[in-house]
Specification:
The complex is a heterodimer of chains A (226) and B (195). The radius of gyration of chain A is 19 Å and the shape is globular. Chain A is an all-alpha fold. The longest helix of chain A is centred in the middle third of the chain and has 29 residues. Chain A is built from 10 helices and no strands. Classes of the chains: A mainly alpha (226), B mainly alpha (195).
């Protein structure tokens, strides 16, 4: 079995697991969000986790099949782990039961995944573009910035959800936001340091072997003639 | 090489940024200090004479951001103005300008130092990502300050903390990208950098 077959198997298994968990929670446990924002808000909030999750997993398959970006097996596994942690955390109320650490662990692992994807995209772009030459300091800056941006967007989403859908994703506390940012930046720092150590032992082309983002760059170039 | 006029601007900018950073330290928001200090360190330690045109532009933007940030801080400190929306808006807007300029300065510094080569698209993306990283650090600094000092000095609400600042930063990046596409601005390069 080649690596992509293994990745695809992991993705399909995750889809099956999470869909079953959602259907079970919906039909057996009576999982239906009942907030203060009205019926539409309740529908959005009920499906706001499972639908993006399935979308991300489907996107991974499409990106590979159309030859835009092949995510390495380990990163696929990490993505699946994060999505399982997050979704099961919601359906089994683990975020509420383990309020002190479940959310932080999910944030930390998610930031590892996001930072890894950012780092791989950067190294791949540098491999196939002659007008890009990277330095270690720049790699750290880019990886940290990439992760911080996604972390920030997630905090905005939590805020949006709390404000308009009546949820309590931020547990009504500034401390939650602070701890989330720390977990995100820690994950980014780990990947940055790990990436630099890896670059001492391997060349960038060895690290991004098998990842071809020519078509992805071509897609951007077509829309941004820069 | 930079003209004498540009060097004077940079030198004046460093002194002013340092002064503003120090005055920000005395106001309510420690993020002003963080931004000012980052800019000062970059300006003072990067032999001013080697900065290009792009750098001078970011320098001026940083100064404008820091200046209005300090003014906003001072006005917010006055009891009569606490909670007054226009100053809060000025504060958030100026913080975004200062962060965007700091991102531009850091990216330009990395380019001018040599070794790094970026195309215009990656240059703008890097500025945006760096500004967002600095924004996260600013918010983190603000929250940590509150947490450790057991005070509640967060004067902006959650929307103001992230999304409004990020919208301004994204607008700045988009404008810069458009200018770069139409080749209206010369972006800094590592040509002529010190070996």
């Amino acid at each position: 079995m080649n690596r992509w077959k293994a990745s695809e198997t992991a993705i399909l298994a995750t889809i099956a697991l999470l869909t079953s968990a959602f259907v079970y929670a919906l039909l057996v446990e009576g999982y239906w969000y009942d907030g203060t924002g009205g019926l539409l808000a309740d529908i959005v909030k009920t499906f706001d986790s499972i639908l993006p999750t399935l979308g991300i997993l489907y996107l991974l398959i499409v990106l590979h099949r159309k030859d835009y970006f092949t995510v390495p097996f380990l990163v696929v596994l990490a993505i699946c782990t994060v999505l399982i942690l997050h979704n099961l955390g919601i359906y089994l109320h683990l975020y509420d039961h383990f309020i002190d650490w479940w959310d932080k662990v999910a944030h930390f692992i998610a930031s590892l995944v996001v930072a890894s994807i950012g780092l791989l995209l950067l190294l791949s772009a540098a491999e196939c573009r002659r007008d890009l030459e990277l330095t270690p300091a720049y790699i750290v800056l880019f990886t940290m910035g990439f992760t911080a941006t996604f972390g920030m967007l997630w905090e905005v989403y939590e805020l949006w959800s709390d404000e308009f859908l009546g949820s309590t994703m931020q547990y009504l506390s500034y401390n939650d936001t602070m701890q989330d940012i720390i977990a995100d930046l820690l994950g980014a720092a780990v990947v940055s340091i790990g990436g630099l150590l890896e670059l001492r032992r391997h060349t960038p082309s060895q690290i991004v072997e098998g990842i071809n983002i020519d078509r992805l760059i071509g897609w951007f170039k077509k829309r941004l003639p820069i | 090489m930079m003209s004498e006029h540009g060097m004077t601007w940079s030198l004046a900018g460093s002194v002013a940024a340092l002064t503003l950073a120090m005055s920000s330290a005395l106001t309510m928001d420690p993020s002003g200090t963080v931004i000012g200090t980052v800019i000062c360190i970059l300006l003072l330690f990067r032999h001013l004479g080697h900065y290009g045109v792009g750098m001078a532009t970011f320098n001026i933007a940083a100064l404008a951001g820091l200046a209005s940030l300090t003014v906003g801080n001072v006005l917010l400190m006055m009891p009569v103005n606490v909670g007054c929306d226009p100053w809060l808006d000025l504060f958030v807007f100026s913080r975004s300008v200062a962060l965007f300029a700091a991102g531009g300065l850091m990216t330009s510094c990395a380019l001018i130092r040599g070794g790094l080569r970026l195309n215009p698209f990656m240059f703008v993306i890097t500025i945006y990502l760096t500004a967002n990283l600095l924004l996260s650090l600013c918010v983190l600094g603000l929250l940590l300050f509150d947490f450790l000092s057991d005070h509640v000095i967060i004067i902006d609400n959650r929307w103001m903390m992230f999304i409004i600042s990020d919208v301004f930063i994204a607008l700045g990046a988009f404008t810069l990208l458009l200018l770069a596409i139409r080749q209206h601005i010369p972006l800094p390069t590592n040509e002529g950098a010190e070996p």
